[in-house]
Structure formats: C-alpha cells, structure tokens
Automatic annotation (TrEMBL):
It comes from Adineta steineri. It comes from the Eukaryota. Residues 9-170 form the SNTX MACPF/CDC-like domain. This is SNTX MACPF/CDC-like domain-containing protein. Pfam families: MACPF_SNTX. The lineage of its organism: Eukaryota, Metazoa, Spiralia, Gnathifera, Rotifera. InterPro entries: Cytolytic_pore-forming_toxin (IPR052090), SNTX_MACPF/CDC-like_dom (IPR056072).
Length: 338
C-alpha cells in the first residue's frame, strides 16, 4: 500500500529544519537542498508554544519498549534496527542493551517540549516549483516540534534470592520520592535503608542537553534530573517532524513509496530479540561454576554465542540493504528478508 498522508516522525537526534527534503524510503536527510529560499520560509513560518514536562519509569529493555519510549513507529523501527540512520543524543539509548540476566535494569526518562514551528502550506502553494532534480526526495519538512529528552539507566547485579520485580518496585519508589522533591534541594532526603539500597548504584545517561558531566551514581543522577528544566531554553532540539509528500506539490512526482507490513516489522524485531535473548542466556550459562572443569563445553557455548551474534548482524545488514528497495520498488517482495 502506498503512503498517502502527511507523516509525523521522531527525529532521533538528526538535524532537521523547516523546508528540508527527506527520502522516506532510505530514511535519509537531503542536506543543502530546499524548495524555498530562507526569506520565503521565514515569511510563512508560524510558531506555537507547546510547553510540556514529564517523566516515565521504564522496566523493560526490548527494542519494542525502546521504540515506544523514543516515539518510533511503523517501519522506522526497522530503519533503527538496521542502522540506516545516524542517531545521536538521547536516541543512542536505543543501542544500549543489558548483557546479562543477572542484572536488573530500570530507566528514568525525562521528556520536555517547548514549541512547534509549522509552514503554512496553503499560502506557499505550488508555483514555480521544479521537483524533478531534488535528489529523489519524497517529502519536505513542514513542521518541527522542539524539546529534549534524557534517559538515566540504572543496572544492578541481583543478590541471591532478589527478583527483578523487587528491585524495580523498590527503586521506583525511591525515584518517585526523590524527583518529586523541590528542585532547589541540595541533598536527597533518603532514609538510611534507602541510602544503602542506592549506594554505589551506577548510572549511564543518554541526553539531548549539553551537560558538563554525566552522573556516576544515583545521587548525582537525581541532582542532574532536578536541573534539567532549567537548561531546556538552551538545549531544545528537533524531536518530531511533520513530513509532507512532494507529490501533493507536483502532480508529476511519481516516486513510489510503499508501506511495510506490520507483520514483517514485528517478525523481524522478534527474530532479533529472540537471538539476542538466547545469546545473553548462553553467555550467562558459560560463566556458571560448573564449567570450571568442563572448559571444552564452555568453549562450545562461547562459539554458539558468536554464531548468534553473527546471525543478528547478518539480518540487520539485510534489513539495511533491502528496506529502501522494499519501500521504493513494488517488484521486490517482503520475503527477500527471510
């Protein structure tokens, strides 16, 4: 089925701006080419305030959960999976996966938006546009939502008898308490038991803010979190864009853009997820004490994990190779991936 409507899409840290051209088949920005000159763009741009700030606590680590947290929808998930895009900032969170099942993970997502800029297309019109040499672009950016996000990732090795659910619930309660306190508070008002629980809890941060340093532990993470709302004025970047099909501007533009079926998207993602899950389980098993005296079996397990990793790489490379063709060529069947 051909894509016919205007599309809202997550930027994933890519440098979009109004009037920029885009090829949705390869998910590539087309730099240094616009349909209108800077003055025309400025004369037809409307800016709306769109203030929002919120947080979310994420306990799952699958690609589907990461895509949801980043606002990635439809076949853009496959572009993310296949590495078609040069993502940056908070979007790099999508590439950070747990490497063992002996750890529990909890992610604190901070999200804020500031304003939305939009081109008034009905006034720009179709006059004096020649789209035939625009580097095979399929869409033009007519709207940009500005804001910023941050993902604080906490991993903890589980003690004997401790469940992931127990860890998540305990840390979530401490999160809710800590980040709801006054932004100006210098210290965390934690009980001795809570301090013991989060003591030396490491933190990784993927963010769109230009911070001087990243947090090393829970306490530093909360202090940085409390300051983020004060930094958004200088850190707002494009977070979502509105893409307008070029054929609506020029009837002679006949570039094929085909949607990818949801079944292929889901199957591709689940296949990669299952291979990754099996790889993690095999790596954990290879470190079991029983293999201390069974080194040859441990080597077989490690060889197996390498094969699983290679299978993931091969599938991702096939996605990167064939996805643009699937979107732009009706003669290519989806079965080419499997």
């Amino acid at each position: 089925m051909a894509i016919q409507q205007t599309i809202t899409m997550a930027t994933l840290g890519r440098p979009f701006h109004l009037g920029m051209l885009y090829d949705i088949r390869s998910d590539k920005l087309i730099p240094n080419v616009t349909l209108w000159d800077p003055q025309t763009l400025a004369d037809h741009t409307i800016t709306y305030k769109q203030p929002y700030t919120g947080y979310e606590i994420i306990t799952e680590d699958s690609l589907q959960d990461k895509a949801h947290a980043l606002g990635v929808e439809a076949s853009l998930k496959l572009s993310l999976l296949g590495g078609l895009m040069n993502i940056s900032g908070s979007a790099k969170y999508a590439e950070d996966y747990q490497k063992t099942n002996r750890e529990a993970r909890l992610i604190l997502k901070y999200s804020t938006t500031t304003h939305f800029q939009e081109l008034t297309m009905k006034h720009l019109g179709k006059d004096n546009l020649d789209l035939h040499d625009k580097n095979n672009a399929t869409h033009v950016v007519i709207g940009v939502l500005y804001g910023a996000e941050a993902f604080f990732i906490f991993d903890r090795t589980l003690s004997k008898g401790e469940s992931k659910e127990e860890f998540s619930n305990s840390l979530k309660a401490i999160f809710d308490k800590s980040i709801s306190e006054n932004e100006g508070e210098a210290n965390l008002n934690l009980t001795d038991q809570e301090k013991k629980y989060v003591n030396k809890l490491p933190c990784k941060l993927y963010e769109d803010f230009r911070l001087n340093k990243n947090p090393k532990n829970f306490e530093e993470a909360v202090k940085i979190y409390r300051q983020l709302s004060l930094r958004i004025g200088e850190s707002a970047i494009p977070k979502k864009v509105l893409l307008y099909p070029l054929y609506l501007l020029d009837d002679n533009v006949t570039r094929i853009v085909r949607e990818i079926s949801s079944s292929l998207i889901d199957y591709s993602i689940s296949t990669i997820e299952n291979l990754r899950s099996l790889e993690v389980r095999a790596l954990d098993l290879s470190e079991n004490s029983i293999f201390t005296s069974l080194n040859y079996m441990r080597e077989q397990l490690l060889n197996f994990t390498e094969q699983l990793s290679e299978m993931q790489r091969d599938l991702k490379e096939k996605i990167a190779l064939y996805l643009p063709e699937l979107r732009g060529n009706t003669s290519v069947e989806e079965s080419v991936l499997f």
